[in-house]
Write a structure and sequence with these properties.
The complex is a heterodimer of chains A (487) and B (776). Chain A is an alpha+beta fold. Helices cover 31% and strands 22% of the residues of chain A. Chain A folds into four domains: 157 residues, Roll (Ubiquitin-like (UB roll)), CATH 3.10.20; 72 residues, [2Fe-2S]-binding domain (DNA polymerase, domain 1, Orthogonal Bundle); 113 residues, 2-Layer Sandwich (Uridine Diphospho-n-acetylenolpyruvylglucosamine Reductase, domain 3), CATH 3.30.465.10; 104 residues, CO dehydrogenase flavoprotein, C-terminal domain (Enolase-like, domain 1), CATH 3.30.390. Chain A has a five-stranded mixed β-sheet, covered by helices on one side. A five-stranded mixed β-sheet of chain A has the order 3-2-6-4-5. In chain A, a hairpin with a 2-residue loop joins strand 13 and strand 14. In chain B, 29% of the residues lie in helices and 24% in strands. Chain B is built from 20 helices and 29 strands. In chain B, strands 3-5-1-12-9-10-11-20 form an eight-stranded mixed β-sheet, with helices on both faces. Chain B has a five-stranded mixed β-sheet with strand order 7-15-14-13-8. A four-stranded mixed β-sheet of chain B has the order 16-27-28-29, with helices on both faces. The radius of gyration of chain B is 27 Å and the shape is globular. Classes of the chains: A alpha+beta (487), B alpha+beta (776). At the A-B interface, helix 2, helix 3, helix 4, helix 5 and helix 19 of A face helix 1, helix 3, helix 17, strand 29 and helix 20 of B.
Chain lengths: 487, 776
């Protein structure tokens, strides 16, 4: 039986925060702005897209204190136990010298209306602590989740490149004080489950995976929240009552990454950022795809397991993982079962998940020698945009013929779905233009996509077909792709 | 800041930093929602229509009133005087709809709660019954339904177009669709109203037009303008979206504040802001252009149909300005154009950076492009063949003579610096061999008319005080939305008094200090307000100089202003000492300044006049690569050259040019407004509406000011306006995309991409080209 603590404890800038009462749905941004009257972090969209509310959250993971940018607007206070929250107010005192990031922004005329500016400062700060000499591309990645409507970004990019001219990382307070803060955070992590409140406002932070299994089995009506990049909007946009909320983002066992010869196993709580780093060696295609999910803040918050469990037809995790033959581990209490990922999605909004059951891990088999794999994402805007469609392909050729092919698309049906008619039209045939062209009509059997604000049905179908053509060209060495290389 | 700065030169024409830069990076610049709230502040939230067009059968708000934390509910019946906020006084914009809704998202009521969350949650509990009516959401449907207009259309005509067509060897006929655009100011609409004694009320707003807020609050409350004071420190972005669109929010806060005698704040969620407020007008332009084999245009006729939304708002002047820019930089021997500001059951479209001008210009660039493809030439050649002359061929469709034409030099300069011709050749060669990827390049000019076309708006006021310690207090009629207006006016005042810019304290725009102001709009903020501030400074300087002559017993002609003070004969008196001396000797150190733009006039009924004081020019060359399998693309390089006359502040101006270009590029590429069949806007948040990111900026982005330029007119410091003209240059990206698409059919067919040119539209253009190639 896990011990229970009815207090949430974290560090906010240089202050200890101890909360005996906090609603499960209280966002960090409202906590800062309304409860603490700290108005430096702004609300631009309340859905994790504009980045005006960006703050850093420091967590001790694998023995190291790491600060990552997050969107305070969709980050619940309940998810912050034993963390260090750093806001723009922490960077410079009134009438004191500016922080190097801030000074660089001033010197390069990086603010106009100034509303996005605190968030941009925090994103650049998070980047600079890890990379004091960033390239333009590095800065573009750091700013993927920050919208500026005034400047056109050029002066901000120049500022980002010149931060080190105004100070050094080693002299940064968060670097100097890192060990002390880490010790304070470790002291806050006491192995107890946190439970506060009752009914709809109740929040539970399980202490471990076993504790989660116990808590969720007892509260199957509860809402599991890991990164909150979707659940956040249920609260900020739809004002849904979704308590009790069970915060699972900090459960160490769910962050496991195990790589073996045969497979890569990712805990359900592995964030996109961590997963992207983990797959870079084995599946660079996934890295490229997942680096286009949300902004950096969203990738630091959102998790692989939740993207799957959520069941969205437009998530960017399922199509490539279905193509790769991934499976998931579902757990309820002490019972675990393995499900092929493609079988998990039953219908729109319906997955093969029982009450009280949660996704514990995802297992991605290694790509067998000689097989080819690719995945592509089509959006209106290249970065930080939800897929109009996402296609993934795994091909096994034997003697120039298609021995096996798995094709899966997101955005083309009510669930992430395999193109079985197209596959059937390809299997056993010579891998040629003629074969691919002959298979193209089969797309209409597999998919009858919708027209919506992201794309028309006509475009979706045509682009899906053309992505197969692209895959073919790439397997024959004739592929050409847009590449954004910035000096 | 009272100490004399070591700086000994004027700050004018230097890259002085934005006055709020330090506060902004530190998170200490306050926006409406950041202000310290008065004790007991209440919060308003709007209840919105969920039909595009319907009679309201019944409205049951019992559950709303009974919800926890609700203090009161306002409906149309609670409006003390007039239930209308039409900025052009057409009585077509109720604060709250009472009997019929004419757009999805139209306000029906407001909930006043102890917290914003309580009010927002309660607003969802309303039970509204509707009797639905047919709705029209776009231009085609509006025309099909009879083409009802929201305001009087305009016609411009010069020469005999029939004769022009008769003299033409060829015709270009077509239709171009140009999408709308959401402002996406990062700070949403917001207002805080604080009740005062008797009729009085004070508001803190995020608005480009504090005077109009004042007028509207007075109108709705039924009190004199003098009872309403509006304070406006800064906006978190405006772009035209806070010219009239803040009226509703301010008025609701004001009515609630007076009714409940508490401070009331209102701030919609981003999604609601999208669904309530107007946007840039979408246009459908039908054109018929006569031209000859040398590419020279002989006759132009065109109809500019705009999705105006449910009320007039500024649709009249917006569509007028589209017509004023039907020529861009080109001389038409004969021309006849007309506007159609169409009623639609959508949000009431409004001002947006460029104010219809960009749409007018883009249509002109479209027929230039058509002519080029038909003749097998580079569109740039056709442009050059049709540019306005300097001494002849220089009369616009509205009969104003273009007196300051520098477009030839702008194009020549940019053509050289961007290496345009060589790169075009390289791209033609690349496209011959590349299978999937294709490239395009295009150079596009802009000529933009500067002044409000409603002549009476071209006036401004300012208030300047010199305190006895030599510090200077400045307030003017303009508003700061990030564009750097305040720092420019501060530079002008500092230069006038010969003091460092830090000596000048800018204060919030306030209707009690400077009355009857115009909107900060039409790129005119600096032109108008800096001149008014200079007038005020000059009045005070004259008194100070006269005082110096008197006490140092020299002739007035022997008193000279120098940086840091005044020289009276052999005596040098520091500015602060002189200020003290003036006060001791009872010299008035305060003045109200005024300015009205000279030379301009306009008669809308005859379509003749001189509506623009001068023109601002510019050009951009963009290069793109497209993927012909998916329509995805990237901008490889853009070179921009902008004529801002003699820049008052090059860093601020460059920021306007860069930001304007990217905003224009976003409008015409990825920013798509999409309504569903029920008439609901479904792209109503950044998750669905995609403005440019840092990674969308051209990979190479060279932005310059035309340093050789000087305004022919005696505008402030011989500078030119900069806010709007660069936005149009984003069109260069679309035309470059068009060339890349056209390469699929060997440039024989003009792709006629509609805008926004999303990857989908690019791919569909490629498909059209494939079909065209197959059929030849």
């Amino acid at each position: 039986m896990t011990e229970i603590r009815s207090q949430l404890r974290f560090i906010l800038n240089d202050q200890d925060v101890v909360l005996d009462e906090i609603s499960a749905t209280r966002t960090l941004l409202d906590f800062l702005r309304l409860d603490r009257r700290m108005t430096g972090s702004k609300e631009g969209c309340a859905e994790g897209d504009c980045g005006a509310c960006t703050v850093l959250v420091g967590r001790v993971t694998s023995g190291e204190l790491v600060y990552e940018s997050v969107n305070a607007c969709i980050c619940f206070v309940g998810s912050l136990d034993a963390t260090h929250v750093v806001t723009v107010e922490h960077l410079s005192a009134a009438n004191g010298p500016l922080h190097p990031v801030q000074q660089a922004m001033v010197e390069h005329h990086g603010s106009q209306c100034g509303f996005c500016t605190p968030g941009i400062v925090m994103s650049l700060y998070g980047m600079w602590m890890q990379n004091a000499d960033p390239s333009v591309s590095d800065i573009e990645v750091a700013l993927q989740g920050n919208l500026c409507r005034c400047t056109g970004y050029s002066p901000i990019i120049k500022a980002g490149q010149s931060i080190s001219a105004y100070g050094t990382v080693v002299a940064d307070p968060l670097v100097i004080e890192r060990q002390a803060i880490k010790a304070r955070l470790e002291a806050l992590r006491d192995g107890r489950r946190v439970e506060i409140g009752e009914g709809r406002g109740r929040l539970i932070v399980p202490a471990s995976a076993d504790d989660l299994a116990e808590v969720y089995a007892a509260n199957p009506q509860g809402t599991l929240v890991s990164g909150a990049t979707d659940v956040g909007l249920w609260v900020t946009k739809f004002m849904r009552d979704i308590g009790p909320m069970i915060f699972i983002g900090d459960i160490a066992e769910l962050h496991g990454i195990e790589a073996s010869e045969s497979a890569l196993k990712l805990g359900a709580g592995v964030t996109y950022s961590a997963a992207t780093a983990a797959v870079t060696g084995s599946f660079p295609q996934l890295t490229e795809l997942w680096m286009r999910i949300g902004g950096q803040q969203v990738r630091n918050m959102g998790t692989i397991g939740a993207n799957i469990a959520n069941g969205s037809p437009i998530g960017d995790t399922p199509p490539p993982l279905i193509a790769l033959g991934a499976s998931i581990t579902l757990r309820k209490g002490e019972t675990r079962r393995e499900v092929k990922l493609e079988d998990f999605f039953i219908a729109y909004g319906k997955q093969d998940r029982q009450p009280g059951e949660f996704v514990e891990a995802v297992t991605i088999p290694s790509l067998p020698e000689g097989e080819q794999f690719a995945c592509y994402k089509i959006t209106k805007r290249k970065d930080e945009d939800i897929s109009a469609l996402c296609g993934a392909y795994r091909l096994k050729l034997e003697g120039g013929k298609v021995a096996a092919i798995t094709i899966a698309y997101g955005g083309m049906a009510a669930t992430p779905k395999r193109a079985k008619a197209v596959e059937a039209a390809l299997v056993g045939k010579a891998w040629t233009v003629a074969t691919v062209e002959a298979a193209i009509p089969a797309f209409a059997e597999d998919y009858q996509p919708l027209t919506d604000m992201r794309a028309s049905a006509e475009y979706r179908l045509l682009a899906a077909q053309n992505l197969l053509r692209r895959f073919f060209l790439e397997t024959t060495g004739e592929g050409e792709r847009l590449t954004r290389e910035v000096a | 800041m009272n100490k004399q700065s070591p700086i000994t030169t004027s700050p004018l024409h230097l890259s002085v930093k934005h006055d709020s830069a330090i506060k902004q990076v530190a998170g200490r610049a306050d926006y409406i929602d950041d202000l310290v709230e008065p004790e007991g502040t209440l919060h308003a939230y709007l209840g919105l229509s969920t039909k595009a067009h319907a009679d309201i059968a019944s409205m049951n708000l019992d559950a709303v009133r009974a919800a926890p934390g609700v203090v009161g509910v306002l409906t149309g019946e609670d409006i003390p005087a007039e239930n209308d906020v039409s900025s052009v006084h057409k009585h077509d914009e109720p604060v709250f709809a009472t009997t019929r809704v004419v757009t999805w998202g139209q306000p029906l009521f407001a909930v006043i709660g102890e917290t914003r969350e309580a009010a927002r949650r309660a607003a969802k509990l309303a039970k509204i019954e509707y009797r639905e009516l047919p709705h029209v959401t776009d231009v085609d449907a509006a025309v099909a339904a009879g083409g009802k207009l929201v305001t009087e259309p305009l016609k411009l005509e010069r020469g005999d177009v029939e004769a022009g067509f008769a003299a033409s060897q060829h015709r270009a006929r077509g239709r171009v669709r140009i999408g709308g655009q959401e402002h996406f100011y990062l700070e949403s609409q917001a207002a805080l109203a604080i009740p005062g004694e008797d009729d009085e009320i004070t508001l803190q707003v995020s608005s480009q037009h504090p005077t109009e807020i004042q007028v509207m609050v007075a109108q709705v409350l039924g009190v004199p303008h003098a009872a309403v004071t509006v304070n406006m420190r800064r906006m978190g972005g405006g772009f035209g979206g806070k010219e009239t669109q803040g009226n509703l929010f301010a008025v609701v806060a004001a009515v609630a504040a007076k009714k409940l005698n508490k401070a009331v704040k209102i701030r919609p969620d981003r999604d609601d802001d999208f669904q309530i407020t107007g946007k840039r007008h979408d246009f459908v332009v039908d054109y018929d252009v006569g031209y000859n084999s040398d590419g020279k245009i002989q006759a132009v006729t065109a109809t500019y149909a705009a999705r105006s939304g449910y009320s007039a708002d500024l649709s009249g002047p917006v569509t007028d300005r589209a017509l004023f820019h039907c020529d861009n930089a080109y001389w038409y021997p004969t021309v006849k154009v007309n506007s159609l500001p169409l009623f639609t059951n959508t949000v009431s479209n409004t001002a947006f950076r460029g104010f219809g001008g960009p749409q007018g210009i883009i249509a002109a660039e479209r027929w230039i492009e058509d002519i080029a493809y038909a003749l097998g030439k580079d569109p740039l050649e056709i442009r050059k063949a049709n540019f306005y002359g300097t001494d002849n061929n220089n009369v616009t469709p509205y009969h104003q003579v273009v007196e300051d034409n520098v477009i030839h030099r702008v194009i020549e300069d940019l053509e050289q610096s961007s290496d345009y011709q060589a790169r075009r050749q390289a791209i033609l060669a690349f496209n011959k061999t590349s299978k999937v990827l294709k490239k395009g390049i295009a150079m596009v000019p802009v000529k933009f008319g500067i002044s409000f076309t409603a002549t009476w708006h071209n006036q401004a006021g300012a208030l300047v005080h010199v305190y006895r310690d030599g510090s200077i207090h400045l307030s003017h009629g303009g508003t700061e939305m990030g564009q750097g207006l305040h720092i420019k006016v501060m530079q002008v005042v500092a230069d006038a008094f010969g003091v460092p810019v830090e000596r000048v304290q800018i204060t919030a725009s306030n209707t009690g200090k400077v009355p009857n102001t115009s909107a900060t709009a039409a790129s005119s903020g600096t032109d108008l307000n800096a001149m008014a501030a200079l007038d005020a400074a000059n009045q005070i300087k004259a008194r100070m100089a006269a005082h110096a002559a008197f006490i140092y017993e020299v002739e007035p002609k022997d008193v000279q202003w120098e940086f840091g003070g005044i020289r009276a004969g052999q005596q040098f008196v520091p500015f602060d000492e002189l200020a003290t001396s003036c006060w001791m000797n009872r010299v008035q150190l305060s003045a109200a300044g005024f300015y009205k733009t000279p030379k301009i006039h306009w008669d809308r009924t005859t379509g003749r006049g001189h509506p623009f004081y001068y023109f601002a020019y510019g050009a951009a060359a963009s290069e793109v690569t497209i993927d012909t399998l998916t329509g995805e693309y990237q901008v490889d390089r853009s070179d921009v050259l902008e004529d801002v006359g003699r820049s008052l502040n090059p860093a601020i101006d460059i920021g306007q040019v860069e930001g304007g270009f990217i905003q224009g590029m976003g409008w015409l590429t990825t920013e798509e407004l999409w309504w569903d069949g029920k008439g609901q806007l479904r792209t109503h948040a950044p998750s669905t509406y995609k403005i440019p990111l840092a990674s969308d900026v051209p990979r190479i982005f060279n932005v310059r000011l035309a340093e050789w330029s000087i305004n022919k007119e005696p505008a402030i410091g011989r500078s030119k306006a900069v806010g709007e003209p660069p936005l149009v240059l984003g069109y260069s990206v679309v035309e470059a995309l068009s060339m890349a698409v056209a390469s699929v059919a060997d440039y024989k067919v003009a792709p006629q991409l509609d805008m926004p040119a999303t990857p989908e539209r690019v791919l569909m253009g490629v498909e059209r080209m494939r079909r065209a190639r197959a059929s030849t």
